[in-house]
Amino acid sequence: GGKMKPLTQMAKEIHADNRVKGFYDQVTYVLDSLKCAAMKGGNQSMYVAHSFVWNSFIVQQMALIITEMSEAIEKLRKDGIDVDLEPHSLDNELTYDENNKIFEMKYKDTVQDELADTLIRLLDLVGFLGIDIDGWVEAKLRYNKSRPHKHGKRF
N or C end of the chain: smaller count of CB under 10 Å? Predict the structure, then answer.
């Protein structure tokens, strides 16, 4: 419902929420500690360790994105998809807990829910990295318009 926010703005909000919920506490602590140690002693191994942790964390986040997509595939294989299912909307007559119970009974773990999880995880990573995803998507779509049928591939 309503006008969609730009993806980059959504990414920043999702990432900020996930930081508040503690999903970044450990990696932030480790990266900050390694950066501090590297700056104090100028020790090359601390720079290498920082880079390794940074890259490993990004790979972990990408793997979690793939996991959500895998969950969507498995749900589709098991139960199919009801393409007419509309997103859950809050009923202001009900409590927060009652609304959540309805979501859990009817909407949670549907293909649409898993696709939403995939996008949320992807946008969280985009927010973590500080990427202007709107600009990148626009640039990629513009480039793709210049490409041949099926981008020159069989499928």
Answer: C
